[in-house]
Amino acid sequence: MDLRSLRYFVAVAEERHIGRAANRLHMTQPPLSRAIRQLEDELGVLLFERTPKGVTLTPAGEVLYGETGALLGRVDGIRRRVAAAAGTAPLTVGTLADAAEQVGGRLVSLFRARYPHVHVTIHESDLGDPTAGLRAGLVDVAITRTPFDDTGISTHVLRSVPVGVVLRDDDPFAAHASLTSADLAGRRWLRLPEGADPAWTSYWTGRGDNDASPVMRTIQECLQAVLWNNTSALAPVDQPMPDGLVVVPLSDRPASDLVVAWPRTALSPLVRGFIQVAQNCWHT
Length: 284
Fold this sequence. Notes:
Layout: H1 3-15, H2 18-25, H3 29-43, E1 48-51, E2 54-57, H4 59-86, E3 91-96, H5 106-114, E4 120-125, E5 141-145, E6 153-161, E7 163-168, H6 198-204, H7 219-229, E8 233-236, E9 245-249, E10 256-263, H8 269-283
Parallel strand pairs: 3-4, 3-5
Antiparallel strand pairs: 1-2, 5-10, 6-10, 7-8, 7-9
Helix pairs in contact: 1-2, 1-3, 1-4, 5-8
């Protein structure tokens, strides 16, 4: 049993619903469901009874829930004491949907070379939280995209990426070199989760009445909605596309910035070091 799986289990046990637990954890439902099934397989017991309204703990699940709270509290205490004794601390990095791939390759190697003993945890958020866990206090620093309400959050732009509309390759507009928002009037746009940042939602969901449109939480859900249902979606022009889809740049839409972000009032030496590494990674 790994600690992440146990934290996932606690969230599901307390929410009594996979969807609500996924929202609480700022992740999508499929990986959470897989983690719970893997935990059940590892223990060889059923932890939840699935019902039309959600889930309930089985007797085995009740026992695990009772033991897990104390265990996780003790583990967190151990980590704090060990980090304090070593003069270091763990670092939790938030990433947002397609920005997750940015926390790879050169950034990882540069950070590990500078901080070989720091334990890094990656927290991937869905499209409902553009702060990638910062606003909820779940992460120390984040790699994400703008725009969003940055009250209490500092950012540094790593690079700016033009934005386009995702279209099926048989769409009449697919062969155009560029489009404007006016060209897309009357199209059906996807929706982001309820409660998402207004500036973020306004930027990424086009214009018009989207009340009847499907709600999307991941980049792949958005792309598949375009592919299967001809729903309109926006994406950075460098977003990898599956077969059958293209991105046509929007000439009247400002670029979206890929940023490193951190709480304005909590800039620890380790977070400062991560920011410096990220800056060097993209600017060299």
